[in-house]
Amino acid sequence: MSCADDSAGTLDCWYFQSLLALPGYVQASRALMIASIVLGTFGLIATLVGMQCSKIGGENYILKGRIAALGGVFFILQGLCTMTAVSWYAFNITQDFFDPLYPGTKFEIGEGLYIGWCSATLALIGGCCLLCACGTGNKQEKRPYPYQTPTRGTAYTTSVMSQEQPNHYGRNSYV
């Protein structure tokens, strides 16, 4: 709806005749927000599948980490789409508002834009945290999960213990 009031205090509102008759930046902002919703949904699904505590996707924790990192990429793309749409819309609103020769209805920045900026910031931070936490170059991924200490007295124990931990004590040092 578009509303206007006159000097007598009468408020007149009318519906837009067509969604396609709206300005181009409004249509582009709507398209970016729809893309943001779709990317956020894909990011949520990928993150839920990539969590180590979920049973979806099996026991391959390296693959699960990569899927969670893909969810982080989706969240970053969602934040960028939201930030672009909200900032572009706010720029056009302020440009029309401060233009003294603009003949149309002048809008002001409302609560929806602030919510959009906050959600875009949170999506960007969350996506970056997922990417940092789900790195593929982690040395602990090479160990079998869950890691168990080998038992005493086997050849595997002495070879593993000599490679991983320096042994500065003799056999009778603990007595």
UniProtKB/TrEMBL annotation:
Presence of the UniProt keyword Transmembrane in the record: yes
Location of this chain's protein in the cell: Cell junction, Tight junction; Cell membrane
Any one Gene Ontology molecular-function term assigned to this protein's record: structural molecule activity
Transmembrane feature ranges: 31-51, 67-91, 111-133
Annotated membrane topology: Multi-pass membrane protein
Main location per the UniProt record: other
Gene3D superfamilies assigned: 1.20.140.150
One GO term describing the cellular component: plasma membrane
Keywords: Cell junction, Cell membrane, Membrane, Tight junction, Transmembrane, Transmembrane helix
Entry annotated with the keyword NAD: no
Signal peptide location: none
Pfam family membership, one: PMP22_Claudin
Domain of life: Eukaryota
Family to which the UniProt record says this protein belongs: Belongs to the claudin family.
Name of the protein this chain belongs to: Claudin
Organism: Electrophorus voltai
